[in-house]
User: What shape does this take?
Amino acid sequence: MRRLFPVTDVTDETAATGEAAAAGGAAGREWSLAELAAAYAYPEPGPEGRVPWLRGNMVSTLDGAAQHEGRSQPISCPADMRIFGVLRALADVVVVGAETVRQEGYRPARARAEFAAAREAAGQTPAPVIAVVTASLDLDFSLPLFTSPQAPTLVLTGAGADPGRVAAAEKAGARVVVAGEGAAVDPERAVRALAGLGHTRLLTEGGPRLLGQMVAAGVLDELCLTVSPMLTAGDAQRIAGGPSVTLPRRFALSSMLEEDGFLFTRYRRT
Assistant: This one.
């Protein structure tokens, strides 16, 4: 893996030695988990303390497909999955839409020994909490995501949610959090609710409809986008769908890594 942006003095693999190589100047070297964690660290707390920071993590092909045959795995790669794991290890909570839970077969996040000390020092649980955004609560509550997580799975829904489904979620061990007046979830209110539970390092893995709602609501602070060197054609979803914004929101490139033709980019709100 090599760093393409920010640009460093070291641009040639043969020149990358010592500290320069450790900083990511060497091409073709697998970065350690610690290096990736440093590269993707959340912003440091300001004078007012830690405030919510919502980052999205998505993958897209060259022609804009966020999935192939309904799943993101076919357009991913091992380095992308390593970064996926690091982003989870840095987060307090992973926010995901109900459709993605169903299609991707979500399971509880697992604790990783490599990050145990850092998470304990940061006051985090051993593994990030999973928060499922759903209006209908049409979920299989017998799945391990709800019955055997290390920390109770959160279900974000609206005040108008079906009481029977709410009861079923709670009976399975999930914690239901109201984050909307009707049946639907208000993204801004969801961020506030999660922060109120102590979850300020937020990560969303989509799907596209949920990410689109977050973009439209103006609550997304950062996008980690893997650009896959693949073409799929077809009618697959983009990384964000749903309601459009009045004016396109401008984000600034923060960093870019490359491995085997895949680009790992970070964009932050300007």
